[in-house]
Amino acid sequence: MAHTAHHHFPAPKMRLEDTRLITGSGKYAADWDLKGQLHGYFLRADRAHAEIVAIDAGAALKHPGVVAIFTGEDAVRAGYVNAPHALNFPGKNGMKTRAPKRPALAHGRIRFVGEAVALVVAESVHAAQDAAELLQVQYRDLPAVVSPEAALAPGAPQLHDDVPGNMPLETEVGNAAAVEQAIAGAAHVTRLKMEVTRVAPSPMEPRACTVVHDANADSYTLHVCSQGYTTLRAQLSAYTGVPRDKLNFEVRDVGGGFGQRTLAYPEYCALMIAARATARPVRWVSTRSEGFMTDSHGRANIISGELALDKAGKILAMRLDWVNDMGSYLGPGAMGHIRNTSSCMTGVYRIPALYANYRVALTNTTPVAAYRGAGRPDISYVVERLVSQAAAELKVDAAELRRRNFIPTDAFPYTTATGSVYENADLPGLLDQALKLADWKGFAGRRKKSEKAGKLRGIGISTVIENTGAGNAPKDDIQIDLDARGEVTVHTVSKAQGHSHETTFAAIVAAALQIPIERVHVRQCMPDMQHVLTGNHTGGSRSTVGAGSVCHLAALKVIEQGKPLAALELGVEPSQVEYAKGAFRTRESRRAVKLADLAKGKTFTVAAEGKFGSTQPNGCHIVEVEVDPDTGATDIVSYCAVDDCGVVINHAVVAGQLHGGVVQGVGQVLGEQVVYDRASGQMLTASFMDYCMPRAGIVRGIRGEEHPTPSKVSPLGVKGMGESGCTASLPAATNAVIDALRPLGIDRLDMPLTPATVWHAIQSAKEKAQ
Amino acid sequence: MAKVTLTVNGVKHTRKVEDRALLVNVLREDLGLTGTHIGCDTSQCGCCTVTLDGRAVKSCSVLAVQANGSKVTTIEGLAKNGKLHPVQRAFAECHGLQCGFCTPGMIMATVGMLKDNPNPTEDEIIHGLEGNLCRCTGYINIIKAVKKSAKLMRGRAR
């Protein structure tokens, strides 16, 4: 499809969603206050692995204000045990995924610290919380395993009887024999073991859900924070067996998602049981500590990589051995760990032979799912670290080695060795622009200056590409309602969690209809549309590519369907009618039929749908750091980013998405990590006091430029770019720190590169040198 | 239970609250002012920042009874007669918010910071926002918004 859209998208001075959000008028999931509501509180496992011998609820039930207490027995009785998962890949040697059951409340056994054991429902939160302390749970402790490599080793404690070896799936991609041959004959092989650490996505809004059960219809309404109800509804229905048409949602403002707000969590299912049993709304608001323990974690991959090159520095082959830690149960959001890491395995390089083996591991930890990028930052980290390491070993400039191996601009569309098709990119142009922006050549001088100040300076580069935008739903769909005042309402099921859909989608419709953006009102996930629209939720950087493109098509359809009606009114043939700036006219007559006139009798409604393929945003990020050798502390002193996001609808919004992504990546590189105690399985980072969230100033500024190659996948020419910031920053920032330390002989450090880690590495290097 | 009287956004309220009730609980649950958010339980995130007798405080770290007799301004009380406060305007115009959840706290913290220091340096802004977490923006546009707030407010004072 050729891109046909206007490229003059209106950009309002502030986003259309802003007024409500800066005045405290937003409505987040915890802001619902329903008449007659009860309050739920989850009693959670205080240990990592144990049998539940008995639960004595006697004293708790007698506590004032307590209405009911639910346990795993209730979950099993309701049949809420089939937690959905998405590891639907063919396994190695015909292996099929072994998915353990997960009752909505733990039954018989708990497998991670924080797993919900009971739900106490009371007239107030305090009453429920106090009563939970009176619940007597008798456990029989079992040995726990929190490291995925240890979990896969012989003799490891077994989490599930039906998942032997704690390995629900082993799978592979690529051509093992071709890679083996290439490595055997290569002039140089770079080998590096890397860990993309387990992190807590941590959107600022804690999870919350209030469930209302309608006894007459036997249906449920969940007031919840979600990235879109279509995926949530499908997962909830699979989990509970409740038909999809009996599940309704109230999703208003959502305080961040990053993949973590997609899932049908067991707590929601337990609240459904409670709402039905008590015949009253049941409300639950997570604390942050609960969130750390029970909201899905991200990344958690260990990768051994080998990169084979010839004498001229051409990459011949790459082999990766993955261990994917999925936590204690398989979740529905973790397919990206395999799908995205294999589809983007070649990165931006022409690598003729690729092979990866994946061993999925279950551990006594919080389940893992998608986190901004969902495997894309992981694979870019692996490839870009290997390439920079190879450049250092071969004593070739890191940018030059990249250039030698780029997929040439005229080779697009390019089919990779793992079978993905990349649409377009201009990698040499992108690199040149970034090298200039970052003054790559001037680095040696800056390094000297830093040295004089007693600092170790390093420069890191990444050139990355990723698959985004396609979506899982069979289509994206939009409904436009035009009213008699000429106001245009755009309905979508794609749900922003900070993405600015109300501004971006309104700009797309306003541009197509040539009307002021203020007349376009985007409504997401409205209850009355929930069984009308069935498109994709917001995730995988797909909303502007998918729903945004359909916004454009729907607006064009308004014009197309309006023409014959206008012709009737104007007394001419439809072919004589022209449309511009909100009105239909004929060349001859001065009369006009306004958009509003179409809706004089009743609302003028148009529905449109579309299905678009994958887009491949790409970018080159160059980071400079200064490491203080006395403290090990790293400062980001320069961050340059050149990105190809295709056509950009709103430059401020796109820059904002990049900023956020970049800092999430840098945060992971410099500090973030979920840490478990290896012996007890206790989480040591279950609050913002212990978990190293990035704070203001971690990246002081980003010099960003665009290098667009418009996509032809959709009529807008856009590329899905919501995740590309961290895909590029994770390797670029790490490469910069390694570059700073390499003169000391340090090149094998893993994130998080905390001051302690870096300081210790520097001390051991010094000791070795003596 | 304790009787607490608060003047919130210029309106006097008297409520009976549990001894352990936090100011943020009373604002959200008893007064329905849900613009003040709760983002953590260890007073790290700053989402619940309000001004208490003119000083920015984290309302999760103040017992409602401690605030007895005080004047509280929440995000809902910042705009006057439909006119946005300069800090609100600056956050929106600098795209200093995305999901909006940390925003009320960020704005109230900025109001408090600029009261103490109307012309902060970038380092002072970064230090001043140390107690406020944002996961969406990378803080880059928030720092811009604080600078613009300061500029707008200096203009207003003149």
Which key features would you list for this structure?
heterodimer, A: 770 residues, alpha+beta, Aldehyde Oxidoreductase, domain 4, five-stranded mixed sheet, B: 158 residues, Ubiquitin-like (UB roll), DNA polymerase, domain 1, 2 domains
Please explain how this structure is put together.
Chain A is an alpha+beta fold. Among the domains of chain A are: 150 residues, Aldehyde Oxidoreductase, domain 4; 201 residues, 2-Layer Sandwich (Aldehyde Oxidoreductase, domain 4), CATH 3.30.365.10. Chain A contains 20 helices and 28 strands. In chain A, helix 10 crosses helix 11, helix 11 runs parallel beside helix 19 and helix 15 packs parallel to helix 16. Chain B has 158 residues and is of the alpha+beta class. Chain B has five helices and five strands, in the order ββαβββαααα. A five-stranded mixed β-sheet of chain B has the order 2-1-5-3-4, sandwiched between helices. Classes of the chains: A alpha+beta (770), B alpha+beta (158). Chains A and B meet through helix 1 and helix 18 of A and helix 2, helix 3, helix 4 and helix 5 of B.
Brief overview, please?
The complex is a heterodimer of chains A (770) and B (158). By secondary structure, chain A is an alpha+beta fold. Among the domains of chain A are: 18-26 and 470-610, Aldehyde oxidase/xanthine dehydrogenase, molybdopterin binding domain (Aldehyde Oxidoreductase, domain 4, 2-Layer Sandwich), CATH 3.30.365.10; 423-468 and 616-770, Aldehyde oxidase/xanthine dehydrogenase, molybdopterin binding domain (Aldehyde Oxidoreductase, domain 4).
